[in-house]
Amino acid sequence: MDSYDNPIKCIFICHFHHTAGPKILCQVPKDFISKDLFETVSVYIIPKGQLQRCIITITASDTKILGYPVQISDQKYLRNAYYFNLCFVCEYNSHTLHYEPIVKKLTAFLTNLEIEDNFLSKSDQSAETQEHLLCLLTKVMNDINMYKKCVLTARNTIVYLNVIEVSRNPPTPSDFDVPLLVSPINLLEDQWDLTTRQVAPFIDGVNHVCKIAKLAKLDIEMVTACIQNLVYCNAISLIDLFRYSNMYVCTTKISQLARTMSRYEEVVDAISRPNGPKATFKDIFNMFAAMRYGSRYIDICQRFNPVSLNIDERNLVLYGLANGYIRQVKKHPVVLKESDVEKT
Amino acid sequence: MRDFGQVATFHTSEQEISPMCIYLVKNDSKGDKLLFRYPFCSFGRPVKVTANDQKRSLHKESVMDNAVQPHELNDFTDDVLSSLFAVKTELCGRKFELKVNNVRFVGNPIQIQTGGNEGVGKHGGVGGETKPESPSIILINIVFALDSFARRLIVHNYYEISRCVGVALKHEEKRCAYLSSQIKDMLMVHDSMATGSECDLDTSFENDQHFEKILKNCSLAQYLKRVFEDISTTGKVNIKVDGWIDVSYCVTSKVHRFFRKDQYFEPYFIDKCLEGIAPYHGLLLLADRKVLLDSLPLDTSPSVVRVINMYSPIKSLETLSADSDLTIAQVFNIAGHLVYWGDATIIFPLTENNLYTIAPHVPTERNNKYALKFKEKFPDYDLLEVMSEFSFPTSLQYKMCPVDDKSSGSTMVQIIIWLLQHKMLLQLHTYIYFMPSSKGLGYYKEESDDDDDEHYKLPSEEPMAMYQLRSDTESVVTTYSESMCKAEKMFHELDEAEQMAMMHIPATANPDDFQLLMRLLRKGYFKGNHHIEEIMYLQNIRRSDLIQLLDKFKDVLVIVEMQDPIISCFYSQ
């Protein structure tokens, strides 16, 4: 199971009742969180003062509960403060990092409603608001589980919720890095911002960041940020500038290339020169196999003459790099003696 | 679009693997208390909880600003932490996992019965206070604070450590009331230092003194400190709780490290490597033999000691099993164990023909820590210079050229071993693909020979018999006509284009060459899964014969040079 593809199993709102203590206000689906379980974890859900407005995730028995406790101080409350928490419940072994911003945003939304007209605190008594709350939570849960996004409208406000996968920060691209498309960017989709729309047409595995900036008539900083964002989205990967003097070597993945015969056609299509007869797989594989330590790409090209084999040598390298069949070996010049550094 | 901030700080795996802090919390009839935490020194003034309201993006760098320095832990007072860690009884005896903002706490709360037993042993009370206590139940939780991005496997490692220490404490409590006496000592320090009416919020400075004194007086605190420090530095925990119970644990992701900072060692890499391990592979100890032998626990199996004593980087596991008089399965197991604990790695035994080249991502800065370490060991050589000599694949034979005198040759071997130990060199092997026609890998039916396939499963028992059996069947040479017949049959299984391609090669006419090629083909050695050395081992062929054969049939074979995939998982990719 993809641990990121985990549905929300339950959403509940609880608050601190001035006499009854921590109490579940409403939950969808009903009776998902048992009273026992709630009592066990209530310390973490309605926590002490210091932990207010902290994202708290507690793993208890077979559930993971993610909440963002909030305290609203106001004279109008019996204890001069109102404590509540909106919690998402997930499978205990799932990732919940990507739900954190949603919980925070929803809580902020509810906090506003509460400050405006005691939406939460009065729902204890009024069946109407209880109903309304139930509706809201059901919609959030269903929409997020189904579409990974949700648009909530309540009292003239609109809240957009969107699940975004969390992963590490990619490194800042250098000016000479070349972005290479991994998955196609569909510009018709409105999820891409203006810069990306301007930059995307120039991403062809040949242009480097600096050149893209020039072609797209954009600031290099903008392009760099955009490229980094695309790396984050797994839409592109960064490779080195293609040069004939580069050195490439086979990785252990090359055996997959040979073994998965079902993909031969795709490989041949991707690497053959356009508008001509197709290259043969053997020639392609031969060229990959020739990529060894010590032989520059130009040497290999001279030996095989890719034009005569209908191989597009640039695509060969791009395809190999994109699929990890080959990697580049780089030269690192080092000045050995400290005293020589000055001279250089 | 996301804002990645000005400085895209790169998150290293190091920070995710190492713990930020270790806590010991108790909860009994007198309430909960944070007994000890390490490290306890607060850096600068403690920050109060206001940081949480800051606008934080989902992103790492915002996480970094706060979580990476352990200071954020100071946001939480000891009181709050102890109330969080002193869980309800329903949560006892299972994994406790709590994430607050960017810190993930993991532990294994357990309930321990204290008092009531007769023998209040050597630790019984302080200052002559030895009145028997009534039995009570105390909850103990040893908690680690980790980066919130820590992977689940890593989190699980820490849970296991907490559990192991907890179990040891439970046993020691039963044996000699160790835990209750330690807790009593710790509480006494807390009480004696708590002066007057201070509230807890501003006493972090005071607290430091508490913990310092506890650390000085209580052995349990010292154990926890050692656990924390051992994991942070080496990744291996090896303590003897109360001088009695051994607690050993190994965080594999910490023990095996890559040069690339953002790459993780996944524990399944080891399984992958061990599954593929074969008798012709060799073992390379990462530490000095003597150091390793000394570090082994007292109750180590004598077989482990024997293997380590007989070990040499030029021996294959098969030789090692013969020399140490153990079955190969046992040697496999011991090798697996040593690899798991980061004491050894799997290599192809050093031979003259081994081709080495420099591994990716090796640090190349002048005077980096490896260069200095290297200089210490080999004062006459410079690491970077040696590395540059391996920029192109170089064989041992070439390095030890006969012009040089013998002593420099042996130093070279030592250097290569050192480089291999530090994963700076990787070995290249030659793999062969049978591609007679333009359509790619030849399609033919392989011989369904069980003997050979067995070899790839890690044998559990009686593997020696199996390996011997296999080489026997092969050496019992079948008659000429029979083998020719088999070769012919194999040949006819190829399709027309492939047969034609074969016909064009003059060597096909030579029955010996033809038969050998067909035999190797039939065994499935030409699909890029077996390197030359492996084929030599499995088929008992000499290197020169095989090289000649490859040369003769070079039009239908494609040669690829790459690393052994089984070993490559120990290198950054």
From TrEMBL, chain A:
Signal sequence interval, chain numbering:
none
Q: Which GO terms describe its molecular function?
A: GTPase activator activity
Question: What GO cellular component term, any one, is given?
Answer: GATOR1 complex
Note the superkingdom of the native organism. Answer: Eukaryota
Please name the GO terms of the biological process aspect recorded for this protein, alphabetically: cellular response to amino acid starvation; negative regulation of TORC1 signaling; positive regulation of autophagy
Q: Which InterPro entries match?
A: NPR2-like
- An example of a Pfam family matching this protein is NPR2
Q: What family is this?
A: Belongs to the NPR2 family.
Full protein name: GATOR complex protein NPRL2-like
Record organism: Sipha flava
Taxonomic classification: Eukaryota, Metazoa, Ecdysozoa, Arthropoda, Hexapoda
User: In the UniProt record, what gene is named as encoding this protein?
Assistant: LOC112683126
Automatic annotation (TrEMBL), chain B:
Subcellular location(s) of the protein = Lysosome
What organism is recorded for this protein? Sipha flava (yellow sugarcane aphid)
Could you identify this protein by its name? Answer: GATOR complex protein NPRL3
What function is annotated for this protein? As a component of the GATOR1 complex functions as an inhibitor of the amino acid-sensing branch of the TORC1 pathway.
GO cellular component annotations of the record: GATOR1 complex; lysosome
Task: Specify whether Transmembrane is a keyword of the entry.
Answer: no
Which key words tag this protein in UniProt? Answer: Lysosome, Signal
- One BP annotation, GO: cellular response to amino acid starvation
| UniProt entry tagged with the keyword Signal | yes
What family classification does the UniProt entry report for this protein?
Belongs to the NPR3 family.
Residue limits of the GATOR1 complex protein NPRL3 C-terminal HTH domain? 497-558
The protein's matches in PANTHER family, at most eight in alphabetical order, are given as: CGTHBA PROTEIN -14 GENE PROTEIN (PTHR13153), GATOR COMPLEX PROTEIN NPRL3 (PTHR13153:SF5)
Classification via InterPro entries: HTH_NPRL3, Npr3
